[in-house]
Fold this sequence. Notes:
The complex is a heterodimer. By secondary structure, chain A is an alpha/beta fold. Chain A is 32% helix and 22% strand. The radius of gyration of chain A is 25 Å and the shape is globular. By secondary structure, chain B is mainly α. Chain B contains 23 helices and two strands. Chain B has a two-stranded antiparallel sheet with strand order 1-2. In chain B, helix 5 (77-89) packs antiparallel against helix 7 (107-131), helix 15 (311-323) crosses helix 17 (341-366) and helix 18 runs antiparallel to helix 19 (382-412).
Amino acid sequence: MTPADTAQPEGPKASVSAEPxxxxxxxxRYPGSGVAAVDALSLEVPAGxxxxxxxxxxxxxxxxxxxxxxxxxxxEGDILLGGRSVRDRQEAELRRHIGYVIQQxxxxxxxxxxxxxxxxxxxxxxxRTRVTARVDELLELxxxxxxxxxxxxxxxxxxxxxxxxxxxxxxxxxxxxLMDEPFGAIDxxxxxxxxxxxxxxxxxxxxxxxxxxxxxxxxxxxxxxxAVMREGGRLAQYATPAxxxxxxxxxxxxxxxxxxxxxKRLALQRVRDVALHRAPLILEDGSxxxxxxxxxxxxxxxxDADGRPLRWGTDGAVHxxxxxxxxxxxxxxxxxxxVQYGAVVDASGVVTGVISIDLIHDLVQREEPV
Amino acid sequence: MTTPGxxxxxxxxxxxxxxxxxxxANNGVCPDWIAANLDRYVDPFLEHxxxxxxxxxxxxxxxxxxxxxxxxxxxLVAPIANVTGILYTIPSVAAFFLLLPITGxxxxxxxxxxxxxxxxxxFRNVLEGLDAVPDEARDAGRxxxxxxxxxxxxxxxxxxxxxxxxxxxxxxxxxxxxxALAFFARRGRTGRAAGGRQGVQEQRxxxxxxLRDPRHRPRPDDPARTARDDAVDPCEGGDVTAxxxxxxxxxxxxxxxxxxxxxxxxxxxxxxxxTWELLWGHLKLSFAAMVAACAVALPLGLVLGHTGRGGFxxxxxxxxxxxxxxxxxxFVFFAWFGAGFVNVMLALALLAIPPILTNTYVxxxxxxxEVVDAGRxxxxxxxxxxxxxxxxxxxxxxxxxxxxSAVNVVAxxxxxxxxxFATTLGDPIINxxxxxxxxxxxxxxxxxxxAIATELLFGLAQRxxxxxxxxxxxxxxxxxxxxxxxxxPTTP
Lengths: 370, 492
């Protein structure tokens, strides 16, 4: 793993891989206040994963995040980035190698977009050509287009400004990014788009990311791991989204993730990932189309020569479910069509199995003993 | 109300000059004399109060309807703000003398001039107060069926009242200061003594006696030959030509500036040479004072603004600075430290510090917190953060502060001759005995021009230093209409 503090001279592509982050009983106590803002927070974020800090307002999630780049000083405990304590590093040097995105973005209004993105590279003393190349690369990467570089923040839409904020944070390819409600000030439709865009970007870049939000749905969508925090800066639960939804640690987490957590869990799983029913497949002439495996339902599914479903038995209309759908969407479709079974098809329309409302029900029940 | 002609009024100057000169000369400030003669302050004090109250009342009477009108018809804001702004810029001493030919000698001139100064402050505060009314309150009122008039009286004005009261407060403190100069308006061409000049040198006493009593008037070979001589009718001594006669007194004034003539005390006055000399002295003094003020106020304001500490100090300095009349400050300095370029310059610098300090502080604090946070989060050190983020963003407000100070200094430099530095444009205004009335009018016009030019120049500079990206983001009406440029804080 390359140390974060070497600004590599080879060129804009010079990549620093992600580094793991570890909170070790990190505590923040403000003088004159009896309660800790962050109370002995311990968690590990593996390199290249998104860790979402989520909780009600005042739970210390932003404070915890800001302790990482020492915008807020740690009172007790420690935070290790790539195995090195952040307390051992110079503040400015540390921050220059940690991407930082905040809700209001904080673009410099008197600087052009290109100059904004170039802030940290310039602080690190990159030469002009390298800075220009990197800025153009980032503008392309974030889908803004290089022609936007000469404009000022005031001339951009909220979504564009948000992308610039991300581009600016990525400028020196930092091993860690801190994001404080980065999509908080954006309307729901654009937020969804930006989230998807960011997830695609992350799939490519594989940064370690600490992501703060108060929105549990965003947390479930964005997080590889979710740290639910509660009043007094205490960690209520740290788990993967599925685990969190299936087994909330206590009543606080259960309430926080919401009464619809069963549905949220279904939203996390795709149809193709579950064990489906198998129906006897027959061709139109009545001969069996597929003999592999033992059918576990009694209804015949008639398929054409390529394996595309045609009807149930003699005249039953077939409800199709895409295997890329989430279980939640599949359930919704079944309920809406008022059918018990749906034929699961792949991208080319070939049947891969059968899903039923009971099957989904069983999945939910199996993972969550009441 | 005592008039300039009454015995007591006259005695105010004579007694001090004749019997207590030593005290004043040796000790500067002379508390014993003040205590012993307290009764002499009563009438001027009452007159002062009356002038202030009348002027602020007149100002409100004019500014309030204007502001309400402009509030409804937005396009009126810029013209009204500009006109009142120019009025505000004209130095008060000059204004008094420019008004003399029109309104005559006396309280009317003083009130007209003082009222003019309150207009900008009152107009802006009333408008800002109305603008600050929350949209939802206005909307709810309209939704419940209030007519525009009812909306104004029942919703908007009550909500704007704090800002309006703040405007009245600022206008009053400003006027209290300016009214101290109103004695100029009272004096007219037979002026009593040399304004508020406090004699410290024997030569001055002689001059003063000469002014009051023709018997003491110096002979041509007298060492005090340059003494001011008020007794001659200005029309006799003037070398007025017909070309400018059409403009009346103002034409005479222009004539004075370009043409040399025989002064009343003998010697040549007027003409381009002397005009230039006085103008140059005026600008030199103002510039030196501004440089000194900047050297103190800018670094202090930047550091205080960056750290966010000392906000109370910055605001207090501004409020005190606004409340202390410049003429009083000049005289206190004069009394303590004596006459001379450096002392007058320091007094002016002291006058210039509050607006620069406050605006620098406020400008730094008004940089959006998330921008500063982002800068810090990216690893900018304090120095770099100030220099490349906070300062550029605060620059427009800082320039606005410089503008207020510069105009103020240029205006106040006019009364520098009262404090012993004679080479400013104020000399012909204050010592009309030497320069004649046309000299006084001419100099007053020039001072007004210099002040307005300063205002416009700094206005341009302010535009020039406003970062391009910032101009783009100033979409809101308030900012576009210049209302924030010359900041008159509406909160304590």
